[in-house]
Amino acid sequence: MALERTSALERVPQSAPSALTSSGARRCRRKFLRFFKNGFRDEKYFDWERGYKWRAHQQWNEVLDRKAYAALLRQGRFSEIAAHAVRIESRTNLLFSFEKMALRDAVKSAAGAKLFAEGLYEFLYGRPNAQRKFEGWCRSVEALPRRQTRVLTWPLVTVFGFIAQPETHIFLKPNVTRIAAREYGYDFRYVPRPSWDTYASLLGFAATVRRDLQDIRPQDTIDIQSFIWVQGSDEYAE
Fold first, then answer.
1. pLDDT at residue 12, as a whole number
2. Are residues 66 and 49 in the same domain?
3. pTM score
4. Domain count, the chain
5. What is the DSSP annotation of the chain?
6. pLDDT in tens, 29-50
7. Is there a domain that residue 3 lies in?
């Protein structure tokens, strides 16, 4: 099901070469199509990559779209918001098990749930300033209670934006994405600590890939993230 809204990716400056001139981009495209000959409409692609991510997005919209989320906030039901978010993510394999555990621990207390719920709402549904919202969300995540495993990681910072708004946000698995960017020929400006500069660079990478693949019609960042995953993951080693 295609999303009708214009993607924010289309408004991000793009610095990588076009697929028409980049041998890396052409090579990555060929690799993706070797696994999924019908591209983003391939049944195997839906079964392996898109299906469970799209179902998570649908589940999010059922319980935490803007209107429902705002109502829960007004009622002070922070733990319920956190429980919904954790449960939806838990049905995916986007986070490692230790990250899932760190997240559950972080929102277990009333204070942690409140910090999480308010910070995530502002990130997803607050006033439009992408950099300010992302940086505010990072501060909220950093301030969450922690036991052993830190919660300020790229996967944890990016997973809920990706699930909730795949027309706008994208998920970052650092090692896989760095490999994919290198193979593609994109200058991905990565630093380990979550920051706007790195996230903006990731959005630029996603926008470049989307432009280069426009003839096989990626629908949203679910398709773009899946394409990136195929390039960098051991699951798709040739």
1. 40
2. no
3. 0.90
4. 2
5. ----SPPGGGGS---SPPTTT-HHHHHHHHHHHHH-TTGGG-HHHIIIIIHHHHHHHHHHHHHHSHHHHHHHHHTT-HHHHHHHHHHHHHTSSSS-HHHHHHHHHHTSSHHHHHHHHHHHHHHHHSSS-HHHHHHHHHHHHHHS--SSS-S-SHHHHHHHHHHH-TTT-----HHHHHHHHHHHT------SS--HHHHHHHHHHHHHHHHHTGGG---SHHHHHHHHHHHH-GGG--
6. 999 999 999 999 999 999 999 9
7. no
